[in-house]
Each structure stands twice: as structure tokens, then as C-alpha cells.
Amino acid sequence: MAIITLQTMSPEDISSVVELDRLCFGGLWNSQGYQRELESPNSDLLILVISENKEKIAFTSSNFESNSGYNHQSIIGIGCLWAILEEAHITILGIHPQYQRLGLGQLLLYALMRSGWERGLERATLEVAASNTSALSLYHKFGFQDVGRRRGYYQQTGEDALILWRGHLHEPEFEQVLSEWHRQVLTRIHGFEVTWEKLKVENLQSQVKSVGLANQL
Ligand SMILES: CC(C)(COP(=O)(O)OP(=O)(O)OC[C@H]1O[C@@H](n2cnc3c(N)ncnc32)[C@H](O)[C@@H]1OP(=O)(O)O)[C@@H](O)C(=O)NCCC(=O)NCCS
Questions:
Q1: Does residue 70 carry a catalytic annotation?
Q2: CATH class of the 2-216 domain in this structure
Q3: Least buried of 47, 143, 151, 161, by fewest C-beta within 10 Å?
Q4: For strand 71-84 and strand 87-95, is the pairing parallel, antiparallel, or unpaired?
């Protein structure tokens, strides 16, 4: 069985996270950037770690070399929130390309929104490339609205960024919204037994198989 753990990032995760950042964003932040975030009391850095047990790895030919280790773990998701005054700025949200479309991005977004709520913040905001339809669809699903555009925001491509906004985090009804999102997140990735720190993924293997990644688990 593969287990996914949702946890706070630690300094020892930096090199793996920088590698994941490179895969997801082409190298947005380097190790100093992540170190800075880890030291900031205003940042929440969350990661998704996938663990596979020895038995599983032993029978998976592509991972045969891992046979001697008890557990093989890799970081497959990263999310970051900056608390600035009453706003939650979502600065990073990425899922390893081989694990996308399994409901894990929305799991991380839910966790970040929950963090913002626990900090007592009033609204969430972020910038996203105008052409990033996957991310836009995800954010819209969580009630974000497009409120502005920064022209030529991305230096390398010259592409515009859209500014997205999601208010009402501090209102009493938001707790109910969080419960509903929690339910939706679980429905999307059925088979998860969820606690805040540890998510048991019993059926992820079959979902991964369906997108041709059986040997990854
Ligand atoms: C954006 C990203 C985080 C989504 O993660 P994910 O794990 O693939 O997304 P999920 O499986 O949780 O999907 C949640 C929702 O996002 C949207 N979505 C995700 N991938 C999509 C795609 N390829 N096409 C259309 N919608 C998509 C859908 O609304 C989806 O809901 P649904 O499954 O009910 O259709 C991921 O694609 C990623 O890491 N991209 C590269 C980095 C990036 O662009 N980050 C955002 C920067 S602001």
C-alpha cells in the first residue's frame, strides 16, 4: 500500500523540493529561497510525501534496486502560503507531473486554504499565468475569481498573469465551506483515509495504473 503524508516541510526536504520545483515550475525558487521561507514565521510550506513499503517495491521491477530499503519515500507535492496582513498569498502549488490529475493538487490547495483560515486571514490571493488553464480551473473550483491582470508579468515568456482572489475566509460560514471542500477532496480521491498529517492512499495504485504509471507505485 502506498501512503501519502501531508506534512509541513523541513530543512532536510529542501533538495528534493528544489528538484520538484524544477519539474513543476522550471526552477522558480532555489534552495536559499526555500530556506528563507522555512525561517519565516509568515510562511506555511506544505508537502505531500508518498511512501511505498518494501514488499511493494520488491515486486516492482522498475524499482528493484530499492529492494534493500524498508521504505521508499518521495516528495510529490509542494504548496506555500505567505500571510501578509490579513491576506493569504498562495505563492507555490505544484504536483509532480507523474502524479497530476489524481486529486492531489486540490488536496494541497484545500490544506493551504485551511492554513489561511487557521491563521485568521480574511482572503486568499495569487497570480497565475493566463494560459494555465489547469490551475485556473482548480482555483475557480475553490471559489477564486479573476480580479485583475499584470501585463507581461512573466519575464521569460512575456506572458500576462491573472490576479485571483477568494474572500470571506474569516466569516463564520467559511468553516462549513471547508467541510464541504474536505468532503469533495475525499470524494475525488476515494480510498483515502484522511487525517491532517497522514493520508492513507489505498487505491492510488489503481488510479495510477489507469494513467499508465503502474510501475511508479
Ligand atoms: C495545477 C496543478 C497543481 C493541479 O494539480 P493536479 O493534482 O493535477 O490537480 P487535481 O487532480 O487535484 O485536479 C483538481 C482540479 O484542477 C483542474 N485541473 C487539473 N488538471 C487539469 C487539466 N489538465 N485540465 C483541466 N483541468 C485540470 C480540474 O478542475 C480538476 O478538477 P476535476 O478533477 O474535478 O476535473 C498541477 O497541474 C501542477 O502542478 N501544474 C504545474 C505547476 C502549476 O502550474 N502550478 C500552479 C501555479 S499557480
A1: no
A2: alpha beta
A3: 151
A4: antiparallel
Element (H, E) at 95: strand 87-95
**Has residue 75 got a pLDDT over 90?**
yes
- From 138, 146, 186, mutation site for ligand 1 pocket: most ligand atoms within 8 A of C-beta: 138
Question: Which one from 34, 99, 110, 139 is the annotated catalytic residue?
Answer: 139
Closest among 153, 44, 168, 33 to 109, alpha carbons compared: 44
Edge to edge, the sheet with strand 192-194 lists 145-150, 161-166, 123-129, 87-95, 71-84, 43-53, 2-8, 198-201, 192-194
pLDDT in tens, 189-198: 754 444 455 4
Domain boundaries, the chain: 2-216
What are the pocket residues of ligand 1 if the criterion is a CB atom closer than 6 Å to any ligand atom?
24-25, 93-95, 100-106, 126, 128, 132-135, 137-138, 141, 188
Is residue 144 pLDDT above 50, yes or no? yes
Is the confidence at residue 110, as pLDDT, over 60?
A: yes
The one catalytic residue among 122, 127, 154, 159: 127
Is residue 52 part of the annotated active site? The answer reads no
